[in-house]
Amino acid sequence: MKKIICATDYSSNSVSALKYAYALSKKINAELIILNIIEYPTVWNSDVPKPKFSDFESGARKAYQKLLNEFCTTHLGTNFNSQNVTLDVKSGEDVENEILNYANNTQALLLVLGVKGMSPIKELFLGSTTKMLISKSKIPVIAVPDGSKLEKFESLVYATTLADEDVIAIKKICDLFDSIITKIEVIHVSEKEDKISISKIEAFRKSLNAQFSSSNMELKIIYNNDVFETLKNYLKDQEVSILGMLEREKRVAWKNLFHRDLVKRLETSVNIPLISISQESV
């Protein structure tokens, strides 16, 4: 059976990710694993309840398992456990690597995370945790902003740089959601129209047409100098279920670095979920 992992930290900002992952797992008939990594040493903060136990090492797992069950019951309802849902608590000194290793070991299809962290003190840390997981994960990652709801899951907008890897990434996303996505818009924002860009656009269009039916796939080219603002405004004007992008590796080309920054800025500025696929996985 297909598996989705939702990594949670019990915080208020992770509630939207939990609800989103739960609703998505039912839509695509997948098992949902709700995972909490106990970090040693633990840094307490005001948002997260503090389980009571006399000895941390021996009592932590049981206490956190109870806390995770209470957290899910509060936000998913009392019958969530009968809906192909598994709760798991693990411990480790490195939260990011523990999540990645767990995803690899369980052969998960997808990893769902909240965009923000627990408290003002830890927000920077957990924000960077999400970004690191997007960069290193071998499976697609959905970053869910606070307040996002899975009311519909029909339309995908994919922001492309017209790279060959983008076609593979789009195919991966479509394979994940082939039963529910009915409309796909592939958007490219270009600074100017010239012979080189036109030639590249047409070559990319041919690659898309070779992989997908034209009935539900559309390539749109928008000319504007500000890529970020153009994409952000476009997404706000459309009814978009999810935004897709390729997370590029840290190679030296400045365009790759700009694209990585664009992924991060959109992740925290647009109130729709972002599905990101790492370049090394395509």
Architecture blueprint of SSEs:
Elements: E1 3-7, H1 15-27, E2 31-39, H2 56-76, E3 85-92, H3 95-105, E4 110-114, H4 120-136, E5 141-144, E6 155-159, H5 164-176, E7 183-190, H6 195-211, E8 217-223, H7 227-237, E9 242-247, H8 254-269, E10 274-278
Parallel strand pairs: 1-2, 1-4, 2-3, 4-5, 6-7, 6-9, 7-8, 9-10
Antiparallel strand pairs: 5-10
Helix pairs in contact: 3-4, 7-8
The total strand number stands at 10
Q: In sequence order, what are the helices and strands, one letter per element?
A: EHEHEHEHEEHEHEHEHE
Question: Can you tell me the CATH topology of the largest domain?
Answer: Rossmann fold
Rg calculated over all Cα atoms: 20 Å
- Tell me the fraction of residues in β-strands, as a range: 15-25%
Low-pLDDT residue spans: 117-126, 251-258
The proportion of residues forming helix, as a percent range, comes to 40-55%
CATH superfamily membership of the largest domain, which one? HUPs
Distance from N terminus to C terminus (CA atoms, Å) equals: 23 Å
CATH architecture of the largest domain: 3-Layer(aba) Sandwich
Strand order of the largest sheet: 3-2-1-4-5-10-9-6-7-8
Q: What is the count of helical runs?
A: 8
Protein name: Universal stress protein
Domain UspA: 1-145
Pfam families: Usp (PF00582)
InterPro entries: Universal_stress_UspA, UspA
